[in-house]
Design goal:
By secondary structure, the chain is α/β, with parallel strands linked by helices. The chain has a domain at about 1-15 and about 90-199: Ribosomal protein L4/L1 (Ribosomal Protein L4, Chain: A, 3-Layer(aba) Sandwich). Helix content is about 35%, strand content about 10%. It has six helices and five strands; from the N terminus they run E-H-H-E-H-E-H-E-H-E-H. The chain has a five-stranded mixed β-sheet. The longest helix has 15 residues, at about 185-199. The chain is elongated, with a radius of gyration of 27 Å.
Length: about 200
């Protein structure tokens, strides 16, 4: 297993764009958010609609029900409805530049090893291929040029390992990994994907 340096490929050259990387991570995390929070309006509250007290003579404001938002147990004004969308998008160029920045930021944790793509269906072969990278609860991202049923089956049983391809890998996956193992074919494919879009 060979450590990656800035001389390995052009995608590992340059500097980390911290602001773009932060923006991309916020968008990826925001897009995972589910709008499940919901509050009831005053029309949905199951409380008495009966007038609290007589209209005049009490010195209190006029109230015809206990459901308004100004009362404890009443409805909520302008609350979440459960239908909000938190989706945001990045342009393709920004996605690719953010991914390159994420790779640069993780440069010391990226390794080249073609053996990880040559395993059979046995999980023990995947464990042997990853070797010392498979340590404790460390999250390992394995990036190959092409997924096969054998690769998926062998890596699926490893809870801390995530298998993906160079075409699908994204900023969040790279940022969350403690170690990243790539094949040389995946690096070439990733270079083609990122460099062509920046021209």
């Amino acid at each position: 297993m060979q450590a990656v340096t800035q001389d390995t490929s052009s995608i590992f050259a340059g500097e980390v764009n911290q602001s773009l990387l932060s923006q991309a991570l916020n968008i990826y995390l925001g897009n995972l958010r589910q709008a499940t929070a919901r509050t009831k309006t005053r029309s949905e509250i199951n409380r008495s609609k009966k007038k609290w007290f007589k209209q005049k003579g009490t010195g209190n404001a006029r109230h015809g029900a206990r459901t308004p938002n100004i009362f404890v147990g009443g409805g909520v004004s302008h609350g979440p409805t459960g239908s909000q969308s938190y989706k945001r998008r990045l342009s393709q160029e920004m996605k690719h530049r953010a991914l390159q920045s994420a790779l640069l930021a993780q440069l010391s944790n990226i390794y080249l090893d073609d053996q990880v793509a040559r395993v059979g269906v046995k999980t023990k072969e995947a464990v042997a291929a990853l070797g010392e990278r498979l340590h404790g609860d460390d999250r390992v991202l394995v990036v190959v040029d092409k997924e096969t049923p054998e690769l998926i089956r062998s890596y699926n049983n490893l809870a801390t390992v995530y298998l993906t391809t160079a075409e699908r890998v994204n900023v969040l996956q790279v940022a969350n990994a403690d170690s990243i193992v790539m094949t040389s074919a995946a690096v070439a494919q990733l270079e083609k994907r990122l460099m062509n879009k920046e021209k």
